[in-house]
Design goal:
Elements: H1 2-17, E1 28-30, E2 35-36, E3 47-53, H2 58-74, E4 79-85, H3 92-101, E5 108-110, H4 113-124, E6 133-137, E7 143-148, H5 153-162
Parallel strand pairs: 3-4, 4-5
Antiparallel strand pairs: 1-2, 1-5, 3-6, 6-7
Helix pairs in contact: 1-4
Length: 164
């Protein structure tokens, strides 16, 4: 818990100090260290649900299983999941343990907390609140919804169904 509070405090300071960082400079990596961008996953003909998480987030740990189940049920039909960890490359082992502990099979990226917050703010125009946070992109890659806090899978399914 202390670790999460310290990360949040650091995030606020770093976001203010990096406000001028161009969005193009925001770097994410997959869990093997390969550079990736959010746009590598959007606009692929399916809904994309992006879950921002951190390994020591209690809600993220509690809810991860339902998002894995959602991904399994929808990946070959109409939607997929993408995780983005705010643990940062220095805590890659913690992020990998989270993925392993929850048996996540959907792609996960990792970035520095302040960079991920800037990515979120650039996409939504909203201030970063914390984890978990979700973005929903339609099959054409347009952002259609954002939500801070846990989102029940039924709500995701209902939203997708209503916005086909």
């Amino acid at each position: 818990m202390f670790k999460s509070i310290m990360r949040l405090m650091m995030l606020v300071v770093m976001v203010v100090s990096t406000w001028s960082v161009p969005v193009m400079a925001i770097e994410l990596q997959d869990m093997q260290g390969k550079p990736r961008a959010l746009t590598d996953y959007t606009g692929k003909g399916k809904w994309l649900i992006v879950m921002f998480w951190v390994s020591d987030c209690l809600i993220c740990n509690k809810e991860a299983k339902q998002y894995q189940q959602f991904h399994q049920q929808h990946k070959n039909k109409d939607a997929s999941m993408l995780g983005i960890s705010l643990d940062g490359p220095e805590n890659l082992a913690d992020a990998k343990k989270f993925i392993q502990d929850h048996k996540l099979t959907f792609p996960n990226l990792i970035g520095e907390a302040q960079q991920v917050a800037l990515l979120y703010m650039d996409n939504t125009g909203q201030h970063w609140v914390g984890t978990p946070t979700f973005l929903l992109f339609n099959p054409q890659g347009q952002l259609k919804a954002e939500q801070s806090g846990a989102v029940p899978v039924k709500l995701l399914e209902d939203f997708i169904q209503a916005n086909r």
